Amino acid sequence: SAAGDLYVVLVEIDPQPVFRVFFNPLVNWLWGGAIILALGGLLAFWPATRSTREQAS
User: Fold this and answer.
1) In this predicted model, what pLDDT tens digit does every residue of 3-57 receive, in sequence order?
2) pTM listed for this prediction
3) CA-CA distance, 57 to 51, in Å (whole number)?
4) Between 48 and which of 30, 38, 52, 54 could a Cys-Cys bridge form, CB atoms 3.0 to 4.6 Å apart?
5) Is residue 55 part of a domain?
6) What is the rounded distance in angstroms from the CA atom of residue 38 to the CA atom of residue 44?
7) Residue 41 domain-assigned?
8) Would you call 45 helix, strand, or coil by DSSP?
């Protein structure tokens, strides 16, 4: 979800079931940051335009 990831894990069964609940907030921000980083890397490798190459010569 947008708020984070929720995990429910069954830890033990005997003598009674024990569940452990984990909540990881802001996980989607990590994925979004990775996508922005990858797009920035692709943009950096994009070839220069013709006018930029002519000015550099």
Assistant:
1) 788 999 999 988 999 999 999 888 888 888 999 999 999 999 888 777 665 666 5
2) 0.51
3) 10
4) 52
5) no
6) 10
7) yes
8) coil
pLDDT at 37: 97
Q: Residue 16 falls within a domain, yes or no?
A: yes
Per-residue model confidence (pLDDT) at position 1: 59
Question: Token pair of 42, please?
Answer: 């692709």
Centroid of chain to Cα 27: 7
Report, in angstroms and rounded to the nearest whole number, the Rg of the chain calculated over CA atoms. Answer: 24
One-letter amino acid at 47 equals P
All residues at 6 or more sequence positions from 26 whose CB lies less than 8 Å from its CB, including other chains = 4
Up-side HSE of residue 29: CA atoms within 13 Å toward CB?
A: 5
**Considering its fold, how many domains does the chain have in total?**
1
- Is residue 32 assigned to a domain? yes
